[in-house]
Fold this protein.
Amino acid sequence: MSGLSMLGAAAVAYVRRDVAVFPVEPGGKRPAGKLVPHGLKQASSEESDVLRWWGLLPEANIGLPTGLSFDVLDIDGPEGMAAIEAAMPLAERYEDDPTVDGPTCRTGGGGHHVYVAPTGVGNRAGLLPKVDWRGQGGYVVAPPSIHASGQRYAWLADWRAGEVSPKPAPTWLRKLLEPERPAPAPGGVAGAATAGTYGRKALESEIARVLVAPEGHRNHQLNTVAFSIGQLIAGGEIEDAVSAIEMLRTAGIRCGLSDKECVATLRSGLDSGSLQPRTAPARNGG
């Protein structure tokens, strides 16, 4: 690899570990169109392709397609990290490891990419505030590429793609990626309640209460609403707890509360409500 640039040598190292790569514009995030007019679809794990690409464009950044060997949780700075931390209490509802644990790189823009095992899910922009998901059909820029800021992408703990197998996404994250859909009404009977109808309508109503709460009463209103929703989650009326609580957090922020206030208030209300499970009122037959 004599004469090959540092980025070219790094790209060769990736393909030698069976990780496909493709060239990205120097200092940017877009595929190098003159070399790979079809973008990530032309990603290759052939060393000959890499030598040709980086021979023609030595300072090209390195693109790694997602959805094949790994997916990536893209966390954009402190706001994205706060959103992840806000979702973490939900993990306590599941038995598996609640953390998103895997090879991690620091992006040049101050964020982080966490590599996890493929989920089969496609890209999800805005999964959480300042948090995106890169899955099937997506890609990320990999170390030691250079960000537009001039900073290099860098692996934490000296990890390199292909050296460590990414771990599966925890249950709460998988549920966030693939929200459960309501079952169809039995027999298509008009007016029949579908599974979760009561919980969904209650959630919509409670969110509206938060959004119109007057100043000085917003925190109390969010706590009251969280208690009610916590009851319904515990009672099985709201199955997609992750999305429901994220909607409450977003409503709290929109009405003027800080993210820190929302997280603390939601945790308190939800925990209290979960101790008193509630289900939909029984309907009279007839």
